[in-house]
Amino acid sequence: MATMRDVARLAGVSVATVSFVVNDSKPVAPGTRLRVEAAMAELDFRRNAVARALASRRTRIIALLFPVLQHRLSDTAARFFTGAAEAASELGYTVVLWPVANDSDSLRELTSDGLVDGVILMEVQLDDHRIDQLLAAKTPLTLIGRNRDPSGLDYVDVDFEGMVEQSIDRLQSLGHRDFVLLEESESPGLEGYGPAVRVDETFHAVCAARGLRGRTLRCTATPAAGRAFASTLIAEAPEATAMLVLNEHAAVGLVSGLGRLGVSVPRDLSVVLIGSTIEISAMADPELAVVVSPAAELGRLGVETLVGRLDGTLGALRHELLMGEFHEGESLAPAPAARGDLGRTAI
């Protein structure tokens, strides 16, 4: 049975272009459309695709669940969506963003009416009741993230543990031994948020194993909260020379707030942003070192995993972790040789 890839190969175009013609989702040049339609006719693609859809009663729609009521949309999240949408289009599916609360009640309409063929679950909690409801409704799903025991589920995720260790490696190579981890304050409804828990556990385990000092502090995920947090950092962790930040919304405000209080980044405090984008890091002055989130790649991989499960082409469960690249930025410097309180480097 012919596929979009077969049509694309015969017509000499991309799979995405075939998808645009089949779904009439984007304009295609008349000459290109004629080539695609001729290839479809020669391969009998249209008739087989329609017959298969009618027989299976599938909508070829995938829901991407993101709890916007509890977690602000970010540049990183947008890249997840973009990667997912591009992959779905190439595979003949449509992705819809389903901005529901992170609770099981919000899924009833989605699972009961057969609106979608499957679900990609984002912002996964360790004890995520949405998973239980989707499994009970026999709704195919893939996780971008991990719950407490994901062994029986398909998932792709950021290797946050590896990112933390990589960041500490780099900072320790510069002589830093006093660390702070800045995370987001916990949002109601997102208790036990997987990335935050794993980053915190890894951070403290690595610090303990290496004889480093490490403590976790939290603030709300806004630039204003980051600016205000600067004084909290000076008061609560004056000995710190290095900071890991898992709170991209607050990061730029934090650097600004520290500068206003006379704390120099990186002379007094080296900073690494974890799981964000180069664009966000470049908004700070100085530009922050960042371990980039492989967001677009994960969005694409999440769709390919779910479609493979729906189409019966994926065999064993997929458990995949992806690391991001480390970009140095301008926020790293050797630890001060001698110091007093944060912002008052000894001379």
Shape designation: elongated
Count of the separate structural domains: 3
Q: Main beta sheet: strand number and arrangement?
A: 6 strands, parallel
Number of strands: 12
Question: What is the mean predicted local confidence, pLDDT?
Answer: 88
Rg from Cα: 24 Å
Number of continuous helical runs: 13
Low-confidence stretches: 47-55
Oligomer status: single chain
Within CATH, the superfamily of the largest domain carries the name Response regulator
**Residue fraction in strands:** 15-25%
Identify the strand order in the major beta sheet: 2-1-3-4-5-11
Classify the secondary structure makeup into a structural class.
alpha/beta
Kindly, what is the distance between the CA atoms of the first and last residues, rounded to a whole number of angstroms? 75 Å
The CATH C-level class name of the largest domain: Alpha Beta
Helix percent band: 40-55%
Give the H and E element order. Answer: HHHHEHEHEHEEHEHEHEHEHEHEE
CATH architecture of the largest domain: 3-Layer(aba) Sandwich
**What is the CATH topology assignment of the largest domain?**
Rossmann fold
Structure, explained:
It is a single chain. The chain has 347 residues and is an alpha/beta fold. The protein folds into three domains: 4-56, Orthogonal Bundle (434 Repressor (Amino-terminal Domain)), CATH 1.10.260; 61-158 and 295-323, Response regulator (Rossmann fold); 160-293, Rossmann fold. It is built from 13 helices and twelve strands. It has a six-stranded parallel sheet with strand order 2-1-3-4-5-11, sandwiched between helices. Strands 7-6-8-9-10-12 form a six-stranded mixed sheet, with helices on both faces. Helix 10 (223-236) crosses helix 11 (248-260). The longest helix is centred in the middle third of the chain and has 17 residues, at 194-210. The radius of gyration is 24 Å and the shape is elongated. The N and C termini lie far apart (75 Å).
